[in-house]
Amino acid sequence: MTTRADSMQTTGPATVQTELPTADALRERARAALRAVGAHAELDAPGRPGLPSGSPITGDVLFTVPETSATQAEAAIAAASEAFTTWRVTPAPVRGALVARLGELLTEHNADVADLVTIEAGKITSEALGEVQEMIDICQFAVGLSRQLYGRTIASERPGHRLMETWHPLGVVGVITAFNFPVAVWAWNTAVALVCGDTVVWKPSELTPLTALACQALLERAAADVGAPREVGRLLQGGREIGEALVDDPRIALVSATGSVRMGQQVGPRVAQRFGKVLLELGGNNAAVVTPSADLDLAVRGIVFAAAGTAGQRCTSLRRVIAHRSVADTLVDRITTAYRSLPVGDPSAESTLVGPLIHARSYRDMVGALEQARSDGGEIIGGERVSPGPEYDESAYYVTPAVVRMPAQTAIVHAETFAPILYVLTYDSLDEAIAMNNAVPQGLSSAIFTTDMREAERFMAADGSDCGIANVNIGTSGAEIGGAFGGEKQTGGGRESGSDSWKAYMRRATNTVNYSSDLPLAQGVQFG
Ligand code: UN1
Hints:
Oligomer: single chain
CATH class of the largest domain: Alpha Beta
Shape: globular
Largest sheet: 7 strands, mixed
Radius of gyration: 24 Å
Bound molecules: 2-aminohexanedioic acid
Number of domains: 2
Structural class: alpha/beta
Distance between the termini: 83 Å
CATH superfamily of the largest domain: Aldehyde Dehydrogenase, Chain A, domain 1
Number of strands: 21
Helix content: 25-40%
Number of helices: 15
Strand order of the largest sheet: 12-13-14-11-10-16-17
Strand content: 15-25%
């Protein structure tokens, strides 16, 4: 048990005094959701050999889930490789029918899947439903894509020749996902990979095995309904060793991994060593610049959702506000006022806006970061551990979001702490603000709040934000699936989801066809 940090300052936040559900009630909800989606999982009692499945809502272990053995992992990869040989020659629009059916099943079962997301990741119901909607959206996107895997025709320099590009399926895609988007990120990868003709082997976070069972069950049902091979999607449940099996297996053509920079630093070189491909979505350290011309009502709303939503546990969560000196005091006052009215508590209660942190380590990281920020001269408002109700057990971690006014971007501000901490920094010139935005090692998301088009355009220009996402007058989180998602620098460089991200899931062949009866050589070379 962790004691409350005396480093955290009390400001009297509003919290909902709801009764938390009991562990038994959570078990019943999880079983009902799994039954509804048709997942026939053998869930054992807590403490048995296997993977412990818990909930941050109460901090209890709810079940033991069967863990994939090394032999089973090998068999799953072999089955997915075998399935690839038929799936790659199945016409893409026919492959799209599988994804269309998956989207329908997700629509039918959105509340079941969302409840599992709430139970395992602690997301408030509206955000959990939003995450399932993100899955449905990417399914629809992928179905359209299944008729649009376009290659280019290029003007050949030789007479009687045609030059073109053809996109082919890549192979088996290994998908490694994190706890905070336990289902959407799987769907981004799976829906697109499947229409591209790839098969998928998924290793979800060890913290969210039940949502994974539900998704797998729905995919298998979709496959059965449309007559697709069941093995196009396989699930491996386990820890690091199972992840390593995917990373090191030469049959896995692409490893798409979401997680920490440290994880990416290990995965990247290991996959590169065997000339496999990687798609990495790693840490972020996202900032919003607030300029003197900003609409502050809008800025405050955008900032509060991005910083405190999901209890600061999105890759895209807002971690830094870079406010012009003339607006900083007002902005901080307004954010802290908004924070005081944010109900913290049971994520399934309708009024709650901030659910629990995922686990004790997250809480310790938050406490450590705040202590460091204070010793660097930061002034902390909020950020205390709270009891969300009478049934509260100290093994769950509920906190109020923190605002920290920092004199400078010290090392702690450069680090990503996966918790609701918002550092506020001030700037005098836009160049300085952009430099501060770009001064961190990560490069996922960024935003500017301004009504001055020159500032907005500059922020998105080549010498503006260096992030994969640069928004104007909206926060850093909550991207739509239609755009490519990912970032630069230590974020890993990959792009998932919409736009032309599909190209990462296919291989490209350049074809030169000579339909003349001559054999002219390129570059005018003469040979005999
Ligand atoms: C993540 O946190 O890994 O833009 C993904 C967003 C969501 C996805 C976040 N659509 O916040």
